[in-house]
Automatic annotation (TrEMBL):
The keyword Iron-sulfur does not apply. The lineage of its organism: Bacteria, Pseudomonadati, Myxococcota, Polyangia, Polyangiales. Keywords: Membrane, Transmembrane, Transmembrane helix. It comes from the Bacteria. This is Membrane protein. It comes from Sandaracinus amylolyticus. Residues 463-485 are annotated as: Disordered. The chain crosses the membrane at residues 6-26, 208-229, 241-264, 276-292, 365-392, 404-426, 432-452. The keyword Membrane applies.
């Protein structure tokens, strides 16, 4: 749905011109760097909501188009990286479980659902095919590309710098919209991507820039702030950069991101020894949350009370309403717990007489559990958190402290972005990008690739490294004879 306007010519030209931009980047940069800029640039700057509905396959949006174009560019410039990443093996294998779940969901939902005047159709094998194509392009492909462009600790350091640069650039747009209201998407592409009233928060505006929701923008700025702290601890940036991004994050006016910032940013900044246990805890929480929530282990009433004490009654009521809807949807999901209800809103609860929708779904975990069941949930979310588990298991093999800081910093980003899918929706594939990068970097631990030193900064440092790696010059003895050094 287009809000307050319609796509202009520039919106369509942006999609047509973006492949050209990718080609230019790949001809001027190393493939993994060009791919990183292309993947992030497409998600951050192409128009939202606009889709291209081609025959047979599901509609393509900016996320799927970006990932597919980068795949073609990688096949052109760096096919060896794709083959080395070994598609659908290693970390990717859990995604096969999600594809299997799509087939079983269609098989077990051959019945139509009638609620008053509304009939929701039965599923067929075509729905399994369409859902698998959608998941492959929208989830697995960005994850796989991220794995392929990060194969060494040095490349992880480069991706940290690239993501931080993009976050800094995006922060300027955030500051503009925080002052003048979210208008950039409408000014550039001719329409608002979402309801403008959703941007009003705390007596000001919540920036959306070129993304679907202000929550997505806040999470990206939070990720950039965390990376700036990592770079500061590595001696690559000044502390004032982290302070600036923290201010930009505050002006994004997202209570969830602010809670994460208050708790996690001081830990990253002032705990001297890198910690790998916290990302592990986040991964365990994400993967077991449906069980914890379904058994009543999560103290929802206590959380609502604390929310009211800190953020006021309005935010507390919003959270209570969310928990109440989750309880209703959980009861619905239990009826077909293993493979879910499938698409066409069959997982939702409707009035049996009028057919009116009686629930609102916020958290992506609840959507995946209701649509794909436990199998679909595990297939998608294990892809996100499995690198956190493997990193913790291999942590003692990371000897270099700088590499420990890099791995720990990126793992925190991957863990928090996965955690954010519990209360909120999946606005883009960025969480899968972060986890895919970590999966690629974790694969290097304990191999010959892991001993590659981080690239030194500055001409003098690089010259010193080249000198240290150069073979020793032979000594010349009497009479011009060459002797061993």
């Amino acid at each position: 749905m287009f809000w307050d306007g319609a796509p202009n010519v520039l919106a369509y030209l942006a999609f047509l011109a973006f492949p050209v931009v990718i080609v230019v980047l790949f001809t001027r940069m190393r493939p993994h760097i060009a791919a990183a800029y292309s993947l992030l640039g497409g998600v951050l700057f192409l128009p939202e909501v606009l889709e291209f509905d081609l025959p047979v396959i599901p509609p393509l949006n900016k996320g799927t188009i970006t990932a597919f174009c980068v795949l073609l560019a990688m096949m052109w410039k760096a096919p060896q990286r794709l083959s080395a990443a070994r598609a659908f093996r290693g970390f990717d294998f859990v995604f096969v479980l999600a594809l299997f779940g799509n087939v079983m969901t269609s098989i077990t939902n051959g019945d139509a659902i009638v609620t008053g005047p509304v009939v929701r159709p039965a599923l067929s094998l075509y729905d399994a095919f369409a859902g698998s194509v959608k998941d492959t392009l929208g989830i697995w492909l960005p994850y796989f590309l991220a794995r392929s462009i990060c194969r060494t600790p040095e490349e992880l350091a480069e991706l940290v710098r690239i993501t931080l640069r993009m976050a800094i650039a995006y922060s300027f747009f955030c500051l503009f919209e925080a002052r003048f209201s979210p208008q950039l998407h409408r000014w550039v592409y001719g329409y608002h991507a979402a309801d403008f009233s959703m941007t009003l928060r705390g007596g000001g505006y919540r920036p959306t820039v070129f993304m679907l929701h202000g929550l997505a923008v806040a999470n990206f700025v939070l990720s950039g702030t965390m990376l700036s702290i990592t770079q500061w601890k590595l001696g690559k940036t000044k502390a004032r950069l982290a302070a600036y991004l923290a201010v930009a994050l505050a002006l994004c006016r997202s209570s969830g991101a602010l809670v994460y910032a208050v708790f996690f940013l001081p830990l990253m900044a002032f705990v001297k020894k890198p910690r790998f246990v916290l990302p592990l805890i986040l991964g365990v929480l994400v993967l077991t949350f449906p069980i914890l929530r379904g058994t009543g282990t999560v103290p929802t009433e206590w959380i609502v009370e604390k929310m009211e004490a800190v953020f006021g009654e309005e935010r507390a009521l919003s959270l209570w309403f969310r928990f109440d809807n989750e309880d209703t949807l959980l009861e619905r999901a239990r009826e077909r717990i293993w493979f879910g209800w499938g698409g066409y809103d069959r997982n939702r609860v409707f009035d049996p007489v009028t057919g009116e929708d009686m629930v609102i779904t916020d958290g992506d975990w609840m959507i995946q559990l209701g649509v794909g069941g436990a199998v679909g949930f595990v297939g998608r979310y294990a892809l996100l958190v499995l690198p956190l588990f493997v990193l913790y298991r291999k942590r003692k093999q990371i000897r270099d402290r700088k590499q420990q800081l890099l791995y720990a910093g990126w793992a925190m980003i991957a863990g928090l972005n996965a955690l954010e899918l519990l209360p909120n929706g999946l606005f883009s594939w960025l969480p899968y990008f972060y986890s895919g990068v970590l999966a690629g970097a974790v694969s290097a631990i304990g191999t010959a690739r892991a001993v590659i030193p981080l690239r030194p900064r500055g001409p003098a440092a690089r010259a010193q490294q080249r000198a240290s790696l150069a073979p020793p010059m032979p000594k010349q003895g009497r009479g011009g004879r060459v002797v061993a050094a």
